[in-house]
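Q: My labmate handed me this sequence with no annotations at all. I'd like to see what the chain might look like in three dimensions before we decide whether it's worth expressing. Could you predict it?
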Amino acid sequence: MKGISSLSRVTGQEHDQICRFLLGLVIDICLPNGHSNARLLRSVRALLDFLYLAQYLIHTTTTLKLLDDALVRFHANKDIFVDLGICDRFNIPKLHFASHYVELIKMFGTTNNFNTQYTDRLHIDLTKDAYATTNRKDEFGQMTMWLEQKEKVLRHAQYVDWHLSGSSIPEQVCWIPPGLDMQWKLSIAKHPSTHAVSHEWLRTDYRACFFLPALRRFISLSNKPQQIRPELEESLWNVMIPFTTLPIWHVIKFLRTDPITRITSTADSIHSQPARHDKHGHVISERFDTTLLNNGSGGNCGAKGAFCSHLRAQSAP
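A: Here is what I predict for the chain of 317 residues:
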């Protein structure tokens, strides 16, 4: 009832609830000094469009163009906030970072499970700790010098560790953006996401309608690889499945190792999870990622030798 400007420690869910009625508040609002609310309506609508488009779990060329268009529409109408005296500039780091969303989505993937709070941690290291080392007079120069010296000490420590480990860096190392580096290692969790999923659930919830026939083909070909197709189809009737449930993994991760630092990180992940309810009873939509599977004749890039598949379930008997 006291407005949203005084709120502190607002969670992401509360932000989402606030965004739902912001546009309705400004549709017919009367602005002072005879200003038309058209620019205000366009800027708020554009910013909300950008926020919701940026949260898409899957992006296409069309959605990325819409994301860029929403940001252009916001910048074209944002001066209304200056005319109303709400602010005098838009030199805001988070607003500037929005211009890099399309580029980073193309390079690193969608923005799910990410937010701008990741960079807030740097405010402690680069500002608060640096300011605490000064005498509170002409602090900017002192903070800059302190940060520069700290970076030099950190780099020297890394060099000493590298030298003591006996590692060597190749003479020519070509840096590749993480999204384009195909030297990945497949990884799954030690324990399955769901320990026992029946055959019926595989067909209904996971939509893996042909999992059992495919499993029978795999078993038959493993026992006798040189079968021709008619012989294979006939042998499927003799393959018995001695279990009624299967453990299921909902996520497969691809790990990459940086060629210089040798640090391993998650380059990408594939999700396969049916719809479910959270602790508040809200329905969480299903997610079955579309993947390109190499049939053995494909290379590191291009679609040749690959076929498209909507990943339904990762299971192991």
